[in-house]
């Protein structure tokens, strides 16, 4: 038996203001996207902004449903929109922000497992990393260099031969 360590680096910014211009702009679009979330059941609103290699930004937000599992997270709304409308255009980065009616979200919000899996599919297909910028409503922003970092030991199409 051998033991292996899986680790990865993140960058932690003290606030959105510390981000580079490109990334600050992307996070601002995610904040804008958040405002159109439909989340009457959780009262938790999430916005995602996807930056494409052609410079276009596509937005998504969580869309809930009275039949709870029929709803969808902001990240998947955004990346599926990108996949549907910009096929073959690579994704460079995704900014994610969340807020709640019930409390002040002041720590960075990370994508759920299903969203990590969905984003991973695109990262593998395009053969280049997708950067992630994670924020609550205010406060620190975490940057991850690739979705693969936060989805180690991923299930991929390589198992489906
Ligand atoms: N949600 C997202 O939009 N993204 C995530 O990565 C985690 C959770 C949404 C789904 C649901 O509408 C609400 O947040 C509470 O789970």
Keyword list:
single chain; 161 residues; alpha+beta; Cytidine Deaminase, domain 2; 4 helices; 6 strands; 27% helix; binds tetrahydrodeoxyuridine
Q: Unreliable runs, pLDDT <50, ≥5 residues?
A: none
CATH class: Alpha Beta
Largest sheet: spatial strand order = 1-6-5-4-2-3
Shape, per Cα inertia axes: globular
Beta-strand residue fraction: 15-25%
Here the CATH topology equals Cytidine Deaminase, domain 2
CATH homologous superfamily label: Cytidine Deaminase, domain 2
Instruction: Count every beta strand, where a strand is a DSSP E run of 2 or more residues.
Output: 6
Would you kindly provide a written description of the structure presented here, covering whatever features stand out?
- With 161 residues, this protein is an alpha+beta fold.
- It has four helices and six strands, in the order E-H-E-E-H-E-H-E-E-H.
- Strands 1-6-5-4-2-3 form a six-stranded mixed β-sheet.
- Helix 3 (113-126) links the parallel strand 4 (91-100) and strand 5 (131-135).
- Helix 2 (74-85) packs parallel to helix 3 (113-126).
- It is globular, with a radius of gyration of 16 Å.
- The model has no long low-confidence stretch (mean pLDDT 98).
- The protein binds tetrahydrodeoxyuridine.
- Tetrahydrodeoxyuridine binds next to strand 2 and helix 2.
- Tetrahydrodeoxyuridine (THU) is lined by residues 39, 42, 44, 46, 62, 64, 71, 73-75, 111-112, 115.
């Amino acid at each position: 038996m051998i033991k292996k360590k899986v680790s990865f680096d993140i960058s932690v910014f003290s606030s959105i203001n510390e981000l580079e211009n490109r990334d600050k702009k992307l996070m601002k679009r995610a904040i804008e996207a958040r405002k159109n979330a439909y989340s009457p059941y959780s009262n938790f609103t999430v916005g995602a902004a996807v930056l494409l290699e052609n410079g276009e930004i596509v937005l998504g937000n969580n869309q809930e449903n009275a039949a709870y599992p029929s709803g969808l997270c902001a990240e998947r709304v955004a990346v599926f929109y990108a996949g549907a409308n910009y096929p073959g255009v690579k994704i460079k980065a995704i900014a994610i922000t969340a807020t709640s009616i019930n409390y002040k979200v002041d720590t960075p919000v990370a994508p759920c497992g299903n969203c990590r899996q969905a984003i991973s599919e695109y990262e593998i297909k395009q053969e280049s990393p997708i950067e992630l910028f994670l924020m609550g409503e205010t406060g620190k922003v975490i940057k991850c260099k690739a979705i693969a970092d936060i989805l180690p030991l991923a299930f991929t199409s390589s198992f489906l031969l």
